[in-house]
Amino acid sequence: MDPHLVAGSSFLHPSEALRDLMALEAIEGSPSISQRDLAQRLGIALGLTNACVSKMARKGLIKICRINSRSLTYHLTPAGFATKARLSMDYARSTIGFYRTARQAVGATIAKLALEGTARVGLAGVSDMAEIVGIVCVYENILIEGIADVGTSLVGTSFMGFPVTDESELAATGCDTVIVTYLNDTEHHVARVRALLPAHVRVAAAIQEGTS
Fold first, then answer.
1. Rounded to whole angstroms, how far apart are CA atoms 71 and 8?
2. Gap between the Cα atoms of 8 and 135, Å rounded
3. Distance spanning both ends of the chain, measured CA to CA
4. Beta bridge partners of 72
């Protein structure tokens, strides 16, 4: 499991425990990492990163060594390695549990859509949830016609073997249903995607049974 996948758009919001795990892994891999670079890796403010590092030092998880007046290095202590191992196991357990729950909920949604005649879908939202939808669609013999995302930086990249397009292009794929796979603000995204599509194209949230 790679916790860095979670921080951006993944199963879990970065909790304090997950942030600690990511920090310990980053420090283990790059002892000379600057706090600014660490902040970018963690996706948090520089001040919060400083507090996180200070907390880990107080707990004896890392040792801070000064190289010169401007440079520091960070090193995991035996307690730090033990904590990283425990946090990694906790993360794996929670992620597996979330995956099972999410797959069950997605399965119910897609089974309902299949009974209502859905055969070709487009996905709105590049996320781990989209991967779960893709797996379930295979079992339901539903074709995925395309994947789109509101993030302009993602358009033109590839996801699950599909080129990521702008959401406005989903209608051109010929799909009869668009499944919204964003994890946050689901109702907002459903309404927004609904407004982009012709009336005959159904829109459904991946983790809800209702469709619109």
1. 29
2. 21
3. 35
4. 66
Q: Which residue has the tokens 């879990």?
A: 12
Q: pLDDT tens-digit profile of 65-111? A: 988 877 899 999 999 999 999 998 888 887 787 788 888 999 999 99
* Residue pLDDT, tens place only, 151-181: 888 899 999 999 999 998 998 999 999 999 9
Beta strand segments in the chain, E: 62-66, 72-76, 120-124, 143-148, 158-159, 162-165, 177-180, 202-205
List pLDDT tens digits, range 4-46.
333 333 444 457 888 899 999 999 999 999 999 999 888 889 9
Q: Please tell me the class of the 3-97 domain.
A: mainly alpha
CA distance 112 to 195: 23
Q: In the numeric block, which tokens belong to residue 196?
A: 């982009």
Retrieve residue 31's tokens: 């002892």
Contacts of 159 (CB under 8 A, 6+ apart): 126, 130, 147
The domain segmentation of the chain, as residue ranges, is: 3-97, 116-205
Tokens 């990163």 belong to which residue?
49
> pLDDT (tens digit, 9 = 90+) per residue, 51-61?
999 999 999 99
Enter the tokens of residue 175: 């799909």
What does residue 204 show for φ and ψ, rounded to 5 degrees? -140, 145
Percent of the chain past pLDDT 70, that is, above it, reads 91
Q: Does domain 116-205 have CATH number 3.40.50.2300?
A: no
Q: How many CB atoms lie within 10 A of CB 79?
A: 13
